[in-house]
Amino acid sequence: MSAARQHLRTVLLEWGLPPADAHEALLAADELVADAVLRKAGDVELTCRLDGAGERLRVEVGGPAGARPAASEPASSERLGLRLTHTLAEQWGVTYTRESTTAWFELVLPNVGRSQASSERLGGADASSGDVPEGARVLDGALVLDGVREPSPGFPPAPMPLPWPSGLSTEAMFDQVVQWTRAITQADAAYVLVGAAGEDLRVRSSTGFAQPAGSPDETDEADAWIEQAARLLAEAQDDGREPPRLPDGGCLSVISAPIRRDGERLGMVVAVAVPADRFGTLDVTRLRFAADALTPVVADERRARAHRDYRTWIGFLAEAGELLAGTLDANLVVALGAQLIVPRIGGWCAVYLDAPGESGELAHVWHADEQRIGALRAALGMADVPSGGPARRVRAWPGLDRLPVPARLSCGPEVLEVPLATRDQRVGTVLLGGPGAGGFHSDLVQLAEDLCARIAAALLTARSYTEQAAASLTLQRGLLPSRLPPIPGLDYDIVYAPAGQDAAAGGDFYDVFSAAPGRWRFTLGDVCGTGPEAATVTGLARHTLRALCREGHDPASALERLNEAMLDDGVERLLTAMHGELRPDGRGVALSVVLAGHIPPLLLRPDGAVRTVGESQILLGAMRSPGYEAETARLAPGELLLCVTDGVTERRRDGLLLDDGDGLAELLSTCTGLTARAVTRRLHTAVRQWGDGPLDDDVAIFALRAIPLADLNMDADMDADMDADMNLNTDLNTDLNMDAEKREG
């Protein structure tokens, strides 16, 4: 191709063609020759003819018979045709003979004097007359000065038509561009390199590569060399510097043209050749043409990729936020956050949590290779604590230089420091180890910032929940009795379970305390609602009933006074309560109870029969002077009284309540012969299993069982045996002491 171009250029200059026409003829001829070379037509013969009047130029490119030139094929997505020839030539076609196949074109030339054109000055020198400045030489119709080939004034850049059809896929477009670039510039290899925003350029398509002695033999090595060369060329172009000395890759001639859109570099087209001084300015113009043709293609691909990545990252952040929001354990939030970061954003991460008035403390370390976590944690222990600067800042990790070389290389060359912070509060810092080759680009930095903000928000929520749950638990313990007194002749047990998982204060409460010698009071209540207001009513009711009992009020009178106190204080919450008195007498337990809007208790006989005790009256806080009346009953030995709140009876499953159809009585009938503790545990398990989710209301289960006489006699015998053992031990100790005194005497 080089010989054909040199021959044609020499002929056109000798004939004195106008520069613009010679430029078009060179372009069309190059395309015909390149097509013949690509189709492996063998030896190519180039012929130029100029008619007698000098108005028509004919160029023929001949080859052996059987070759089918692209000029004979219509342009399509599969057969590209010869677009330059079709656009520039007045006539073109293919002539077939028995011996050869010749592709040709004709150009119509303006009727201008050839002598004037032949005396064109080339870079201030007359090339045809040999008038060349000192230190310069003429080569292929161009002036070579200081080793850089400059075009003659007669060869200005001209707009070029696309030599390929529209509608090609991105990869097909890249392939056509590198093939056309290599052919039109007689390069040994051509490349299209593309890089995402903030990333280094990578080879997307290539064709050909010379293999002289000492050059790389593997494609990936060749790509690595051209990528390094492209990066150096890009940096020089961006900084306005002269092209730097490129690394030795076996090629002495390299030209490049950037693919740009709105000032941003999208990629680069590169042509390389083994010999020196292979390319000229006309080749650079052609390369720029190829780069301009690829600009909309690469821009559309980047825009589509950015949109795709944006949707992917938005989905990832949404799922990450949902996962973090569903965790109320601060330690688990930190661990989940680290695993969301690695390996999507970095190769490893370390989470530092700020303490009030102190520097950050290392809370969690995670690495893509779990076997390296221990070594990484040890290295971080020797490093400085992150300073927590701006939201996005890549800094050199101070501890990196203290690591041995293998560990230093495994950690990557850079560390991204991102604060764990919301708009209003900062909770710590995340160190991100580099993701690998290419480092952190802008998209990863933005993603890291957004994800760390979500981790910080989830961490603050978990801490707030922990503090609130601890406060609620402390308050709940203050509203319930710290310990329950033993009652002779009575076996009782209470199970209390707050609704949900937050253990919010308020709701149900219970109490058992001594009222007088031989008499005990018990209370089971349920405030409408939960939270601080319900907790206020709970505290008022429990302590008021204790105080009224000490003043000698019976259960009915005590509830009357409590009702008046609630109305006087303007309490807006209603309260259901069961308040009663127990009097064990050796033959069972005498019972008097008042039900202020509460669920009537169930009495279980030893034979499994179940009945209710008492009737529910008006709720506390609903009206003045409700006129509460106590009802009496008796627990015979072996009988059990069950008291519950509505969290038990109203437990739902598939639209049904647990107590529908006397469901609670049926459950209780299966508990004959069990202790009070066994009964409460069995019923609590049944309540949990009845519903699918967590409890939606507080649950309180209070069981009282009159101890049978046999158990009482057994207990009395055990007490007598224990007293005898204690007396025996006392006598033995006395004898031993007397013996010791005698020996001392």
TrEMBL record:
Arranged from A to Z, the UniProt key words for this protein are: Hydrolase
- Per UniProt, residues of the PPM-type phosphatase domain are 490-706
> Which Gene3D superfamilies does the entry link to?
3.30.450.40, Histidine kinase-like ATPase, C-terminal domain, PPM-type phosphatase domain
Which Pfam families does the annotation name?
GAF, SpoIIE
Q: Which domain of life is it from?
A: Bacteria
Keyword Hydrolase appears in the UniProt entry: yes
Q: CDD domains from the xrefs?
A: HATPase_RsbW-like (cd16936)
- Key word Hydrolase present in the record? yes
Q: PANTHER family, from UniProt?
A: STAGE II SPORULATION PROTEIN E, STAGE II SPORULATION PROTEIN E-RELATED
Q: What is this protein called?
A: SpoIIE family protein phosphatase
Species this chain originates from: Actinomadura gamaensis
